[in-house]
Write a structure and sequence with these properties.
single chain, mainly alpha, Helicase, Ruva Protein, domain 3, 72% helix, elongated
Length: 160
């Protein structure tokens, strides 16, 4: 008799915990869905649905919760929203077709910018290095001697 009570309590606890897991899972699915979609409110706030606090977003969340509880998957709901509103309802562009450029362009720009900065720095360092490494022509010391002599004459002419 005691074992039957223990088994009954264990079964009841498992049943209650399974219900809690499904509630938590449904909440996680709803958050995942809200992260994937933009809010389509009247004032066009431009926020991701999870961050929007308008009345339209509350109605949308309630609608999505009912859809998830009825067994519709997140992917199906996203597809239905894209069919209704177009790809502008997605919080991030899809990774197919022309939208792939939206994902690739920042990385290509960073690499190209890095090569550009490297090229500019090499040209600056190259110009400085070239002027240091070039041997001075033979005529230049004569010019330098000419100015040194003139400077010496000028300084000698100054009375203190």
């Amino acid at each position: 008799m005691k074992t039957i009570k223990i088994v009954a309590v264990l079964i009841a606890m498992m049943w209650v915990s399974m219900g809690q897991v499904s509630i938590v899972r449904a909440g996680a699915l709803l958050q995942d869905l809200e992260n994937q979609l933009m809010c389509k409110c009247d004032d066009k706030c431009g926020k991701v649905l999870i961050n929007c606090t308008c009345s339209t977003s509350d109605k949308t969340r309630a609608k999505f919760s009912k859809m998830l509880e009825s067994g519709i998957t997140v992917e199906q709901i996203v597809k239905m929203q894209v069919d209704e509103y177009g790809e502008t309802v997605l919080s991030a562009p899809s990774k197919f077709g022309f939208n792939l450029t939206a994902w690739m362009t920042p990385f290509v720009a960073l690499v190209a910018g890095g090569f550009g900065v490297r090229k500019v720095l090499q040209s600056w360092v190259g110009k400085k290095g070239d002027s240091d490494s070039v041997e001075t022509p033979v005529a230049e010391p004569k010019v330098s001697e000419k100015y040194s002599k003139r400077l010496k004459d000028e300084l000698d002419g100054i009375e203190l």
